Amino acid sequence: MSTAQATQAATPVRSPRLFPLYLTPFEEYMLWDDRVDYPMTFIVKMEFDGEIDRHAITRALPLALDRHPLLQAIVQPAKGNRDCWVAAPNPHVEISWGEIGEPLELPKGEAIDLRSEVGLRVWIRTGEGRCVITTQFHHATCDGIGAYQLLGDWLWFYADLVGEPVDAPLPDFDPLQLRMRVKASYNVERYRDANGKITFDRPEAYRLAIQTMHSLSTKRGKRETPAGDKPEPLFPGLCDFEFDKLRYKKLRHVAEARGQATNELLIQQLLVSLNTWSDLQGDRHRGKYCIMMPMDLREADTRLSTAANLVTYALIRRRRSECVDTPQLIDSLAQELLKLKHTRHTTPFMNVMAFLTRVPTWLKRGFAGRRRLATAIVSNTGDPTKRFSVSFPSVKGLLKAGNLLMTDINGVPPMRNGTRLTISVFTYRRVLKICLRCDPQRFSVEDSRDFLNHYVASIENLLADA
To answer: Which SUPFAM superfamilies is this protein grouped with (predicted)?
Structure first.
């Protein structure tokens, strides 16, 4: 099959019956909790060895986007004068080009206004036989898995256009699949009790509306920037640390010996680190820490081949006094995370969000206000390349897309209002990478790196003790 034929076969015919689409409760939440200073956007950054073909990568992007209608849509009043997804009058996504190390421009600021622009931005920086592709997604359009589906499709078309096609074809795609996401995201029937009534979790609603969680303490003292030095750009402002294969293997063994999954150990040590960090900053305030953790809602019959949101949030709360490395904390986290795994389709969080769709936007925003729902957001992404729609060839453990070898992939979830810390955990290349960003309005990139080092040191201490 020729390149033109392959491209034509993999690109769907857009259905005129798709839009307008009602928003799901989670998509509505991502919109009404969106703020100019704390936008509901997340970042994914891919790094490659190889000279990128500028023409091919530019041409490949719209081909990939044709398979992901929500990334070519905006939000406007439509059916019943309700906010709906509608086709964007100008769905084109412009790529910002520059040299490696050149700052990423944000002429409109970090926020993405979904009422006037699509929910994707792209920057590509090249030089010295390398390239870095940074993408910013609005979370109302898709979750992390949906973003990886788009990025995988984009690399698939790129490989095809540079004459090194991937053997596996992209899966068939029907735009009308997107209608499935409503029930897959929030199925009201799952929330009915034995009498057929829809239950509403009043205690959780109270906690979300009234309780304020303890925050990541601001760094004590100001670091002086040496004369002539420029501070690191606050966007994307990512800091990361990598446990190599041997250290990652030891970490898994240590967790197993403690009766924990690796993810449980990482969440536990984050709670411990938040507590000890507060002590170091002289913060003696009591209260609770809360970890907000995204949970995938996809099942075998709801695995869409297009970018969308099929995710909910779990909220893991602990008093400061409980955030020490003890058997009690280990056991309680293990039990809570196991329960969440089996009850993720009926989380109290989504129940409350669905209820709030009935009230006016001003009341929704007042519900959260400037209240801190979570101390940190933590997403265990695993290997993002496993979320691509097809398997790519590899060279020495590195994904190969045409003439490019992917050397790294990372990013962080959105930072909502009141939350000062967002973290993703990755396992690409069989290493464990922790990627972190602190609130750029309160922390410099160097301050963020200090907290990351503090967190990593707490994990390393467990390895040393073992």
So the answer is: CoA-dependent acyltransferases (SSF52777)
CA 132 to chain centre: 19
Whether the Cβ atoms of residue 154 and residue 64 lie closer than 8 Å to each other: yes
Do residues 443 and 219 lie in contact, with contact meaning Cβ atoms separated by under 8 Å? yes
Distance CA 138, CA 158 (A): 23
CA distances to 95, 206, 237, 425, 464 from 338, in Å: 42, 24, 33, 19, 28
Instruction: Give the Cα separation of 55 and 162 in Å (integer).
Output: 9
Question: Is 251 within 8 Å of 459 (Cβ atoms)?
Answer: yes
Q: Is-contact 463 254, C-beta < 8 A?
A: yes
pLDDT in tens, 145-170: 999 999 999 999 999 999 999 999 99
Peptide bond into 294 cis (omega under 30): no
Residue 289 has phi, psi (to 5 degrees) of -95, 150
The residue written with tokens 């029930």 in the block is 183
Q: How many residues does the chain have?
A: 466
* Token reading at 235: 């966007």
236 cis-preceded (ω within 30 degrees of 0) = yes
Lowest mean pLDDT among 33-47, 215-229, 342-356: 215-229
Nearest by Cα to 175 from 390, 27, 17? 17
Q: Rounding to the nearest 10 degrees, give the CA dihedral for residues 436, 440, 443, 444.
A: 90
pTM, full prediction: 0.93
Residue type, 310: L
Distance separating alpha carbons of residues 171 and 306, to the nearest angstrom? 10
Contacting residues for 299 by C-beta, under 8 A, at least 6 apart:
184
Q: What average pLDDT does range 75-90 have in this prediction? A: 95
In 281-397, the DSSP E strands lie at 288-296, 311-319, 376-382, 394-395
Token pair for 291: 């970890």
H or E element in which residue 437 lies: strand 432-438
Angstrom distance (rounded) from CA 225 to CA 124: 28
**377 bridge partner residues:** 292, 422
Torsion angle, alpha carbons of 459, 143, 119, 66, to 10? 130
